[in-house]
Amino acid sequence: MRIAITTRQVGDVAIVDLQGRLVVGEESATVRLQVRDLLLQGNKKLLLNLAQVDYIDSSGLGDLVGAFSSARKQGGELKLLCPGNKFDYLMQITKVALLIDVLEDEASAVKSFGQSTAATA
User: Fold this and answer.
1) At what angle do helices 58-73 and 26-40 cross, to 10 degrees?
2) Is the pLDDT of residue 73 over 60?
3) Beta carbons within 10 angstroms of residue 50's beta carbon
4) Which of the listed residues 32, 36, 64, 94 has the most CB atoms within 10 Å of its CB?
5) pTM
């Protein structure tokens, strides 16, 4: 299944809802371009909702880290929402959870911007 992306605003936070597989190729490139476009439009608070993502490969994970880095370079913040148990192990062994804030509740995630718990890069 190709990745489907929808974007919505909650206050000053742009929430990017992803559905499908985040894998090497067009899928991960689409996510990267969406994040870039949001940053260019002046969105500095980005929340990637992974609740409906079925699978992430190493390239997809790399793109999440790249999106985080791009946001930081432009004075923004990027956080991950609802990766759930299916990606918990992957986030822990790759140490992504130490770099990027990973939250399970949308309301709490929206409120958390400006209060990062991840390591400072």
Assistant:
1) 10
2) yes
3) 23
4) 64
5) 0.89
